[in-house]
# Entry
Amino acid sequence: MNAAQRVAWLRAEITRHNEAYFVHDAPVIPDADYDALVRELRTLEAEHPEFADANSVSQRVGAPSSNVFAPVRHDEPLQSLDNVFDDAELRAWAQRCANALGLEAESLSFVVEPKIDGLALSITYVNGEMVQAATRGDGIVGEDVTDNVRTIHNVPATLASAPEGRLAVRGEVFLAKEDFDALNAHQRARGEREFANPRNGAAGSLRQKDPAVSASRPLSFLAYQLVDIGDQLAFTWYHESIDQLARWGFLTAGESTREHGVPAMLARSRWFEEHRHDLVYQIDGAVIKVDELALRARLGSTSRAPRWAIARKFPPEERTTRLVAIEVSIGRTGRATPYAVLEPVVIAGSTVALATLHNQDQVAAKDVRPGDLVIVRKAGDVIPEIVAAVAEPNRHRAPPWEFPATCPVCGHPLTRGADESDTYCLNPRCPARVREQLIHFASRGALDIEGLGEQRVGQLLDVGLVHDVADLFSLRVEDLAPLEGFGDLSATGLVRQIAASTSAPLSRLLVALGIRHVGPVAARELARHFGTYEALARASLEELETVEGVGPVIALSVFTYVRLDDTVQRMARLADVGFSMREPEGTARAATLAGRAVVVTGALTGFTRDEAEAAVVARGGTSPGSVSTRTYCVVVGESPGASKVTRARELGVPLVDGTHFEELLRTGTWTTTLA
# Structure
């Protein structure tokens, strides 16, 4: 395809995606892939002036409105924002602004805001009364959604002490993350289609012909621009107008800050990237605006975007790529999990080649098949997952993928319970299960055997030195020293580490065994209740169900596990090598946090998130995921969630430095409090 053909194709493709996104609220591809198409088109148009066209889609905003709602002509165009993707591009934009103004870049003040992934909206007020609300549309003409917007709980119908004349308040209609989850749960309960992301949910909820449907959805509106159509208000700075919007009762972004100079502005934009998952709404970037309104007027705008503002887009969390194959992995409990093998793609700054598909039902519901172009999502540290397949007109798809009937590792039949979504290999000697059990047994959250990681476990299995966790305690230095990567010193060290693990209390051993459904909290409660493994193994199903925090599901799992022949043999061997199989007397419930809610945010030295929460629960407390007036304290580790820290300060809840966490567990209090 030559340059002219490529330009024509890009214009047609971008137009198609604009209509899907702006008109039908059903984007076909992720924003990052759309941005890449637009950037390629602009590059080609710049390199080939002969293709210049004032009507090119690269020069337009949004898309024409649908015929569902009445058209509304905006008093002033709703422009889009140009994008940058890193510090260098953002710094270059600031320098262009300074050059155009004849100023030093360090003399400029900026407002840095979150770029909310919602639906752009303009609300018109006359003499302080709301008279109309319209979507962006193509930036010139939008859709009249006034009746629907009147149902949004935080949109003021009247602006107190507003001047006479005409004002427009612009912002984003959005679904908070918790509200989005609740909406999708409601959709599932009704057997209706779930929304792919909060932006789609917000747009689909607002653009309803029946305002009652919009009223039933938990929509919110965040204001970020005041358009003073009649020049009734006199502001020198942009941030003053935002303060006025807040006084009128609009929600504004509390995380926005005014920064002086380029270094501070860059640092704040990076802050938003680092804390993008801590905010109550979904964001895909930061917006940086010149604060002084007189300077904005001098900078002006292009046909589609202001020169005084820019959007710094964050590394995309969704991309499209080709699904090469669907495979099934077997975990330590025998759970068979389908996963996608992908053509590698960079998402959120890392290369992704595998993604989870959760279970058999999810594969069927998403109807993804080998060979499909798929949307892959990776948010923060979350395991990458397939969101959906991308429709490709005129492309022949493979037949629907079928879940295997037998284990792909050992060939044992796979079993799915009547009321379960998961499928299991029940062969206790399945090599995949044994491998995962060994890795878990030695992991930090279990017996924490230093030097026995995933690669070492694989090596020991490959040479046939171990077949079960109990075999670890028969390893000798002379067995290990000849192996690749070992020597006398490292072999001696590993043997000692394995032997030292026999001093672990019963609760840690129960975690290490990897009993299905038994985590740190349940293991601790079982160990404390029965005291010894012998007593636990003799317990009836009814006795197990009486243990605090152990319901019928966990009880049945434990009852079944301890009676398996393999388990009986394993536990006898572990007892022979020195495990006491007891919970020490001194670990009886220390109720230092009885009845107290302790919220943990950020990384704590020596504890995973689950371990920290389990430690609080073990001392009689609770560890909820949110801060409230009932919270006893918030423990702040490294890279904490900004929203939790802010909420704690607003409510006057003490902030405890993460380095004092063990002191808190031991005594129920702490020495110092963070400011």
The mean pLDDT is 88. The radius of gyration is 30 Å.
